[in-house]
Amino acid sequence: MKNAKGIAKYIGRYVFRPAIAESRIESYDGEVVRFWYESHEDGKRIEEVLPVLEFIGKLVRHIPDKQFKMVRYYGVYSRNRKAKAKKVMSVW
């Protein structure tokens, strides 16, 4: 597990919308990971310290199945909307 921090950074950069931002990971000492998140109930900052394997286990749960279709652009962000927005902006 010497390179676990490097692996976590790599996964965080290339997975579509990572489960946890790299900036929320406060420390890693080879055995435990210290991170924080905001509670959905009251918006308070919660700090946790987990063993590395437990942290990775929680992170891996967010990786979608191989056949899972991820919707990247929907609604306002859809490609169709972008084309229409460009057309409207060209009129201005």
Overview of this protein structure:
The protein is of the alpha+beta class. The protein has a domain of 64 residues. 36% of the residues lie in helices and 20% in strands. It has a three-stranded antiparallel sheet. The longest helix is centred in the C-terminal third of the chain and has 13 residues. The N and C termini lie far apart (56 Å). The model has no long low-confidence stretch (mean pLDDT 79).
Distinct helical segment count: 3
Give the low-confidence spans. Answer: none
End-to-end separation in angstroms reads 56 Å
Strand order of the largest sheet: 1-2-3
Helix content: 25-40%
Largest sheet, strands/sense/barrel? 3 strands, antiparallel
Radius of gyration of CA atoms, rounded to a whole number: 18 Å
Q: Whole-number average pLDDT?
A: 79
Overall body shape: elongated
Topology order in helix (H) and strand (E) letters: HEEEHH
Structural class: alpha+beta
| Count of distinct strands | 3
Strand residue content: 15-25%
What's the layout of helices and strands?
Elements: H1 4-14, E1 25-28, E2 32-38, E3 45-51, H2 52-60, H3 79-91
Antiparallel strand pairs: 1-2, 2-3
Keywords:
92 residues; alpha+beta; three-stranded antiparallel sheet; 3 helices; transposase activity; Transposase_32; DNA binding; Transposase
